[in-house]
Structure formats: C-alpha cells, structure tokens
Amino acid sequence: MSQPDTQHHLSTWKGVCSEQDLVSNSGVVVWLDGAQVALFYLPGAQEQTLFAIDNHDPESGANVIGRGLIGSIKGDLVVAAPIYKQHYRLQDGQCLESPHQRLQVWPVRLNEGVVELAVS
Questions:
Q1: 44 pLDDT band (50/70/90 cuts)?
Q2: Which of 19, 27, 89, 100 has fewest C-beta within 10 Å?
C-alpha cells in the first residue's frame, strides 16, 4: 500500500497520523509544524491514492478545504472548497477558476501504516 519514494529521496518524512485515521473518499486534517494539512484518501484512484493539500481556503479565509467534496473535472481529481466552491486540483493545488491561486501541496506516503509528509 506504500507509494514509491522516487522523487523525494532527499526529503525528511514526518509521521502525521495513522492509516486508520484516514476516511475513504473524504478529508481529514492534521497539523504539520503549525500548518493545517488536509489529507484525502482515494482508494479507487488510478495512480495516486493519497493527497496532502493546504487546509486554508484563500477565498473565504477559513480552514475548510478538508471538508470539501472530492470530484473530477476534465480528468483531474479536485476538491471543491465548501464555502465559495472553487475547485483545487489535488495533484498540484491549482485553482481551476482562478489560475493565480494555488494551495500548497506536500508529498505524502503510507509507510507501514503511518501517513508521512515530506518536509524540507
């Protein structure tokens, strides 16, 4: 179930929760060095099944991305921000409606039942 660590071999990995804390096809929020990170676990996704994206919605100013609905637009997995409904790609954090907006994303993996985020 672990994802290969090919791109981030120089990163330090930090455990943020257990695999049991994840909710299929939904978001949970964890703390990482003072930041709120929304984790989305999509077991039916083709390539990547776990995503880590900033929980802070720049449009509303609220920490609500982890409560957003998951979907697909033109083949991209997205989360819809709960308040104003902007769509952010899970892969890179890009807002589809406002190209100047992008949420931070973190490399994420499952390692022996622990969800880990890459930190620099």
A1: confident
A2: 100
